[in-house]
Amino acid sequence: MRTALVIGTGLIGTSVAMALAQRGVVVHLADHDPEQARTAAALGAGTDEAPEGVVDLAVVAAPPAHVAGVLGDAMRRGVAYGYLDVASVKGGPRRELEALGADLSRYLGTHPMAGREKSGPLAASAELFEGRPWVLTPTRDTDTEVLNLALELVSHCRAVPVVMDADAHDRAVALVSHMPHLVSSLVAARLEHAEESAVRLSGGGIRDVTRIAASDPRMWIDILSANPGPVAELLSDVAADLDETVRALRALESGDDEKRRTGAAGIEDVLRRGNAGQIRVPGKHGSAPRVYEVVGVLIDDQPGQLARIFADAGRAGVNVEDVRIEHATGQQAGLVQLMVEPKAAPLLSAALRERGWGVRQ
Questions:
Q1: Looking at residue 139, which CATH number applies to its domain?
Q2: Edge to edge, what strands does the sheet with 26-30 contain?
Q3: How far is 202 from 146, CA to CA, in rounded Å?
Q4: What CA–CA distance (Å, rounded) separates 106 from 56?
Q5: Exposed/middle/buried for 162, CB within 10 Å: 0-12, 13-18, 19+?
Q6: What is the CATH number of the domain that holds 339?
Q7: Within a domain: 35
Q8: Which residues partner with 207 through β-bridges?
Q9: In whole angstroms, what is the distance from residue 18 CA to residue 37 CA?
Q10: Which has the closest alpha carbon to 340: 359, 357, 323?
Q11: Domain boundary among 116, 142, 164
């Protein structure tokens, strides 16, 4: 791949363009908002000047509802040898392209499983896709050279290619992305008019559950409008579980011992099913989930504290598998939770205590 055209210079499009430009590909940028394309160009994502001839690959980074139209226009103009999109829904755009009479041999639907709560070119990063799955949905019609260009793109972005059927992909992202986003938003909505005294008690749990609710609603309306059926089916199942859970909780309020036992059993069932589902979420580097020991370290909110902790862990020969930070309410302090292999936890705790850290294991 020597040349590429990225159509749509939001977070994903600009990040793709940055990654390609850093690998020596001449990238041309286009957007319905010329100012946004100029911003992406100023960030080093390429040039906002139109290509003089046919480019090797056109990457359409438009909202799902507009993908087919943008692709169809680009294919009619013959701007590239191969065409792909990076929308989060795959079945609908392909069927729309087919209805438009487009040459599907030159097209491949893809979806990088990466993103951020922020949108726009200023939020973009060439490293956005590193180590992340990138779904490819080729069919028997897909030209081999187009598939090779897509694989080259994924390699330049340092992502991991995953081949799936388009409709299977849409059902999968409804489960692991679209439905959870709505549930996160529903939980976060409970906080909008809550008492300030209650919100101030927020900790890591509510932050984890509501983090993705900070995303741009306009973008998510586009995504959900393109995949409503699978998401609605999943939410219907969640609603049924919620109804059962509400009945179980009401039973726990009862003065009848039998009803209380039934209610407790219902709550235990949903919690255990949650345990069983959670352990299926892939762990580090996509491996099977691992159970780590948590070593807590008290820190002041001052420059260099985290660097010192990681350096001291390295001197002790301990690899930190993951890290979380709990910030103290109303204080310039917090608790850094270091996740390590269970056998390494005592060694790390002892080493950090020797170096003067306040350790909580």
A1: 3.40.50.720
A2: 26-30, 3-7, 55-60, 80-85, 107-112, 133-137, 160-163
A3: 49
A4: 11
A5: middle
A6: 3.30.70.260
A7: yes
A8: none
A9: 12
A10: 323
A11: 164
Distance in angstroms (rounded) separating the CA atoms of residues 184 and 245: 18
- Which of 124, 142, 164 is where one domain is finished? 164
Record the tokens describing residue 275, joined without a space.
Answer: 């345990």
Residue 267 lies inside a defined structural domain of this protein = no
CA separation for the pair 180, 247 (Å, rounded)? 23
The number of beta carbons lying within 10 Å of the beta carbon of residue 135 is 24
- Phi, psi of 297, deg, nearest 5: -130, 125
Q: 312: number of CA atoms within 13 Å, CB side?
A: 20
pLDDT for 65: 87
Give the chain's radius of gyration (CA, Å): 24
Sign of CA dihedral 294, 295, 297, 301: negative
**Residue 36: inside a domain, yes or no?**
yes
User: Domain containing 63: what range?
Assistant: 3-164
Q: What is the pLDDT of residue 327?
A: 73
Does the residue 302 lie in any domain? Answer: yes
Helix extents (H) in the chain: 11-22, 34-42, 64-77, 91-99, 144-156, 166-173, 179-189, 196-199, 204-210, 217-226, 228-253, 257-278, 305-315, 345-354
d(CA 273, CA 10): 38
State how many domains the chain has: 2
List, for residues 272-322, the tens digit of each pLDDT value.
Answer: 999 999 888 876 655 566 778 899 888 887 888 889 999 999 999 999 988
pTM for this entry:
0.77
